[in-house]
Amino acid sequence: MDEAAMADGAALLGSIDTILLGRVSYDGFSQYWPPATGEWADLMNRPPKVVFSRSGEAGPLPWGEFGNARLVAGPLAAEAVKELKAGEGGDMVLLASAGLTQSFSDLGLIDEYQIHVLPVLLGAGKLLFAGGHRRQLGFVSAKSYPKGWVRLTYRRVD
Fold first, then answer.
1. What are 18-34's pLDDT values in tens digits?
2. First vs last Cα of the chain: how many Å apart?
3. Which CATH number does the domain housing residue 73 bear?
4. What is d(CA 145, CA 6) in angstroms, rounded to the nearest whole number?
5. Mind listing the pLDDT tens digit for each residue in 35-63?
6. What pTM was computed for the model?
7. Backbone angles phi, psi at 11, to 5 degrees
8. What distance in Å separates the CA atoms of residue 37 and residue 42, rounded to the nearest whole number?
9. 52 with 33: CB under 8 angstroms?
10. pLDDT of residue 45
């Protein structure tokens, strides 16, 4: 990523109050970020995390010395997000969790989509919206970056 993309990513993380993650993403993030240092590490470590898992028991999860992650298991996911959205303040970001994105989108829990297009072609991978998913979105903005990366922003249309 170039400097402009890094600055925009840091601005986004600096504006949120809660990070939402799937359990697999959490496993990788929780190993990498807590011991890391610098601006991005601070932005990733500071906010509380809510981790969603189809299996397992709800409860606290380790996030290094920060201790600010909790697990929500099974069918409680939708209720947990609705409670977070109903609370005072608190912008949330869902990171690196394609299956969770599909589930939350199907439930109408995502207000804004930022889709990042990178100039790399892959012959395989996980589909972001599989299974006949259909959601009406309204265009908000598009931004291109010097190295060819593009960020598309859309809002849910009800």
1. 999 998 899 899 989 99
2. 34
3. 3.40.430.10
4. 10
5. 999 999 999 999 999 999 887 766 678 88
6. 0.87
7. -65, -40
8. 7
9. no
10. 94
